[in-house]
Amino acid sequence: MIAIIDYRAGNLTSVARAVRRLGYECSVTDEHKEIIHSERVIFPGVGAAGKAMSDLKALGLDRVLRDVYASGKPMLGICLGTQIIFEHSDEDDTPCLGILPGVVRRFPEPLMDPDTGIRLKVPHMGWNGVDWLREHPVFSGVDKDASFYFVHSYYPAPSEEDLIVGRTLYGVPFASAVARGNLVAVQFHPEKSGRPGLNILSNFCKWDPDHA
Amino acid sequence: MLSKRIIPCLDVRDGRTTKGIKFKNNVDIGDPVAMARFYYEQGADELVFYDITASSDHRPIMIDVVRRTAEEIFIPFSVGGGIRTVEDMREVLLAGAEKISVNTAAVKNPGIITEGAKAFGKQCVVLGMDVKQVEKSAKIPSGYEIVIHGGRTYMGIDALWWAKEAENLGAGEICLNSIDADGTQEGYEMTLTRMISEAVNIPVIASGGAGKPEHLASVLKEAKADAALIASMTHYGNYTIKGIKEYLKDHGVCVRMNW
């Protein structure tokens, strides 16, 4: 069973729908026991970092998520979930989980396209590509020119280069996919990214980090 | 690079799509869920459902359409038409839509934009604007006025002012529909689209007037729209999403080609 962390943040049903569509059982839950005993964990989220962290703490899920990472269970961060995995977010000046080293920054204002000089809108909303820097089982079979659906105004800035699996350019280059050990995290929404997104979710649902 | 989005719009009345379709494939042309699935597979970047159901008694039918669509397609889609309260928004979002759009309700009660943005995040709240060109005046300095009731009622609100105001209130996106261009298939309202797109820092979806791929290329390049809404072009089988995107790509517009 796959546990989808429920911390009242955004539309969690879409992740669950996609996972069920792929033929896997999942539960949208904040129950510590259920999460700890699950086979793998998805940490999604749409919203603001400050509120998300206070909700996680209120539910005791900050500790549970650190335990999940330490347990070696496969773990997938999505969008806000990915940002909160880092140490600190500029959004509401929020101390985050600190599972991965690095911070979360806001896109600079004004944000300019370095090639055209045209001003880019924030949030970064819509379909963009990912420059894949290395192979990873969760991203296997994804075409190089596949696009993914993004909606965000803040982006992860890992402090260790080797965390970065994929990079996206939107005015500035940022880490759109990171991985370490049993953890994979993406800034885009695989559940809203059509076939390539479902491919990634499907890979995650089968992934065994011990046999990488 | 961020792609420009191509967004088919489906009008739904009492749970059925209203426009006649000439798909060659075995798509149930009256079923919005089948059509959504068809467009998803054909490479649409997003979908818009517009609920034109006259009575709110039929609301559960639309919610059911949204729920079934969310089981079938894994790209964002928005729902507009008849959304008046935060509770209406919640119902549609929980059924699986990514965004909701408000139009008349926001003109009458601008606070709904802020309430929606606070409750669900700005990215969920699309402001739909129906606009008509008028004489420039002290009240309407841009020469574009907000209308409702399909263009029959002038609201005395300047479209440019309203777009900026909606952004300040918390709208995450604007769907800009020109009543003058709507249904003509002679091209989008370029002056209006460019004016609004340059004035706000949120994405603008151009709507009304699409008849040929050239129209999309112009509005996405020259008028700086972030996305283009289409209806008749593909509903009647004259064009495919793929064909439109190939044209756009050949004409220097960044579009999503791999789906």
Secondary-structure map:
The complex is a heterodimer of chains A (212) and B (259).
Chain A: E1 2-5, H1 13-21, E2 26-29, H2 32-36, E3 40-43, H3 49-58, H4 61-71, E4 75-78, H5 80-84, E5 88-89, E6 94-95, E7 102-106, E8 111-112, E9 119-120, E10 124-129, E11 131-132, E12 147-152, E13 154-158, E14 164-170, E15 172-180, E16 183-186, H6 194-206
Parallel strand pairs in A: 1-2, 1-3, 3-4, 4-16, 5-7
Antiparallel strand pairs in A: 5-6, 7-13, 8-9, 10-12, 11-14, 14-15, 15-16
Chain B: E1 5-13, E2 16-17, H1 32-42, E3 47-51, H2 59-72, E4 77-80, H3 86-94, E5 99-102, H4 104-108, H5 111-120, E6 125-133, E7 144-148, E8 153-158, H6 159-169, E9 173-178, H7 190-199, E10 204-207, H8 213-221, E11 227-230, H9 232-235, H10 241-250
Parallel strand pairs in B: 1-3, 1-11, 3-4, 4-5, 5-6, 6-9, 9-10, 10-11
Antiparallel strand pairs in B: 1-2, 6-7, 7-8
Helix pairs in contact in B: 1-2, 8-10
Overview of the molecule:
The complex is a heterodimer of chains A (212) and B (259). Chain A has 212 residues and is of the alpha/beta class. Chain A contains six helices and 16 strands. Chain A has a single domain, classed as Class I glutamine amidotransferase (GATase) domain (Rossmann fold, 3-Layer(aba) Sandwich), CATH 3.40.50. In chain A, strand 1, helix 1 and strand 2 form a beta-alpha-beta unit. Chain B is an alpha/beta fold. In chain B, strand 3, helix 2 and strand 4 form a beta-alpha-beta unit. In chain B, helix 8 crosses helix 10. The mean pLDDT of chain B is 93. At the A-B interface, helix 1, strand 9, strand 10, strand 12 and helix 6 of A face loops of B.
